[in-house]
Amino acid sequence: MTVKNILYFACSWFSPAETEFMKKGQDALSQNPTVDWDNTFRPLDHQYQNIDVTKHPEKMKDPEWQVGTFRNDLLGIDRADIVCGMFLPQKPDSGMAFEYGYAYANHKPIVSVIPDNVVAPEINLMLIPSVTHYVHLSDLATFNFNNLEFDLFPATAY
Questions:
Q1: In 3-state terms, what secondary structure has residue 35?
Q2: Around Cβ 26, how many Cβ atoms within 10 Å?
Q3: Prediction pTM value
Q4: Domain limits at 74?
Q5: For the domain that residue 78 is a member of, what is the CATH number?
Q6: Residue 87 located in a structural domain
Q7: Residue 149 forms part of a structural domain
């Protein structure tokens, strides 16, 4: 029997490139036999009071929405087996960096998904060793989330 892991799906969605990368990751993870995609926490699906900020961006400035969404996201990380982040090294997201830090402090494995053309990118010094395993997008649908081991990714720190 294949164990299916509940993930916290960390991603940026503020630009067309980020949205495209996010959707490709979602498609791949939904096909992965070691992922419980139905129960995976996807922050955009769990915004405070079910407010869709892609349709109502003004809500992002609302302190109540900010705190509620922040707290929901932390609960999502707490309930997850693994944090899986869609990481674009050329455009790092400070929110995802926080999610990685919170996950690391709470002993959650972190899998960072990077574009296929990324080989040895520059990544912030604090992120490189916090990630348990880096995986290229094309390998995501078949990546075994049940057999994680630390793999130091060949990146240059900045």
A1: strand
A2: 18
A3: 0.91
A4: 7-157
A5: 3.40.50.450
A6: yes
A7: yes
